[in-house]
Give the backbone structure.
Amino acid sequence: MTDLATARERELISPVSLTRPDGRLNPAAIGFARTALVDTTGIGRGRGRFVRSWGRNKRWEYWNVMTPTHIVSLTVSSLDYAAVHEVWIHDRRTGREWGRTATILPAREVSLPSSLGTGIAIARHTDFAATITPAERGRLWRLHAEIPGATFDITVTRPAGHDLLAVVVPWSARRFQYTVKDVALPASGTLTLDGVDHEVPAGSWAVLDHGRGRWPYDVSWNWGAGSGLLADARTFGIQVGGRWTDGTGSTENGIVVGGELHKISSSLVWEYDLSAPLDRWRVRGGGLDAVFTPFHVKRSATNLGLVSSRTDQCFGLWSGSVALPAESIAFAGIEGFAEDVRNRW
């Protein structure tokens, strides 16, 4: 374990660069933030002194939107040697799905902003078009995609004063990740499926996963998130992760109540059976005791030899309790997802 891996988690309160001029991790960036303070311009450079990092740079934008009738996800990503994109829509009433995955070797027809909110993410390929457009300094996001049989145009709003969770995870000076998890964001708009319009109504919620970093080859992780309202009508978001941050001194765990982030710096215990993913999952630690009850599982796998991935992502309802410094909160009916992923990339 490196000195970086044992660094104490701290809160970042002013802008900082993720990388030093030599391309290595800037130690001053290690920690977490409530806003997108970290400049990730240094990720993705593939020439000169950065050439040794080629193939390790991973950049992506992932959005998930859950409506009362549908589940929508959009991925735009570049892994240096490949661009990997996906649009997926699930009808919660009928079980019908629309989807398109595009893997482009080498990476092309993709544009990702250097840092969160600084530009438009664009992906183009055969039967695939997607844009992710920020506006009003990150207070609005427009998600637009077109695949055969399906399009959507969704606007995501970040309410004033709504915290996100940004974390820098240091495996070493050469391998590190900056992740932004933004939960409990109201969404509105339209899905058009086989020519029929479906509203994205009030009560729809969006979650963002923004990533910029330089990754090890073989990594596994858990990720879970959920959004909704408490009994007293305050917004509530849950953001939990595991495995990939072990031993780094950083976690991506937190609860957002009424727009305020409550960081959980403890590692969490995940209990579930991957052979029976629709059974209950439990996540606990750091004052959180959460149960996730799935109603649908989305499984995907890719094997390109040296490069492969496997994802088991379940959608369902979060319930449980969390002990915060000023209050204890019980929550139920919080819609979201939990996943188990392994990537060799």
